[in-house]
Amino acid sequence: SSPSSSIFAELRHLREYSSHAARRATTTTTTATLFTRTLLCTLALWLLLTLSSKLSPPPLPDLDSDHPHHDSMASSALRGLKTVVKGQKMMEGGGVPVYRTIGTSAMRNLDPFLMLDEFKSPSRDAEMGFPNHPHRGFETCTIMLRGSVEHGDHGGNSGVIGPGGVQWMTAGRGIVHSEFPKSKGDEMLHGFQLWINLPKKDKMCKPRYQDYQGDRIPIFQGDGYSVRVISGEHSGVSGPVTLRIPGFLFDVRLEGSGSKKFSHDFPADWNSFAYVYETEGEGALAGRDPVPRASHVLANDGTTLEASTEGTLKFLLFAGKPIDEPIVQYGPFVMNTDEEIQQAFMDYQSGRLQSSDVEMIT
User: Fold this and answer.
1) Contact status, residue 252 vs residue 262, Cβ threshold 8 Å
2) Beta strands per DSSP E along 87-173
3) pLDDT at 350
4) Whole-Å CA distances, 250 to 20, 205, 242
5) Is the predicted pLDDT of residue 202 greater than 90, yes or no?
6) CA 98, 101, 102, 105 torsion: positive or negative?
């Protein structure tokens, strides 16, 4: 070939090499640019998420945790059943047969609840009653369904709780009292006594009674059910008994023809249980078959309790915010330390426990 053709060939080769190198450089530059942009976007996203987690405002406090609006809770998850504690028969006082659920080896307590007894027998079987005995550091609630109970204390206070009536006694720093059936013979005596703990700040408060006869307990009438509101609130109806801790006490009755359903909302962290005192026919309580003469301890997994039946279902419903303090109990004294229990015994023996300053609310 001629020198000129060789030169032209070299020039073509050089031009092709230059073009190829340029394309490679462009591709490399484009790849580097994409990589840089991707890295910057990733870093920006990481920085945004980090700042968001650090700068986001804290959650708002639950202003209604102690006083919930039962018809408009934020969550409506159903509350399940944790366990069922059947009543254990025992003799109390002067020989009164009772069935105890809370306050046994099966369930020592359910903060703030310490004990629940049901008494149901002809009055003659309970005539020995509960002679004088002391209390300190907690409260008792006596709920009567049938028959009457007379009570009196060391200060001269006395009264009679009739059918449907309720007595709420705050023992506080100390009280000595007695309880005897007022009804006689074959007349049925049917009721309950609940013990409720007091927080440390209130254990030495002034003793107080709240006595309300059956006609003073308001009733909410729903579709196929009724609620006697002893304390707390249901569907706009409030009970007369005032509590020192957030909580409520209801007497719920589903009865009559057809299918019936009850529901109530309250905070998930409140401890609660339902004591079934009568059931007949197919029904459900917290999604399980109701067991008579037993406490149905509810789980803390929801805010809504539901109960339903095709027949009859009657139960007491108790709920309260846990006190979350040490519980030291010895017989009729419930304190926070062993030393306080020893002091209670010394005060009782010396007469210092029996102060005459007792408040009566009727």
Assistant:
1) yes
2) 88-92, 96-100, 113-122, 130-135, 138-146, 149-153, 158-161, 166-170
3) 92
4) 89, 26, 13
5) yes
6) positive
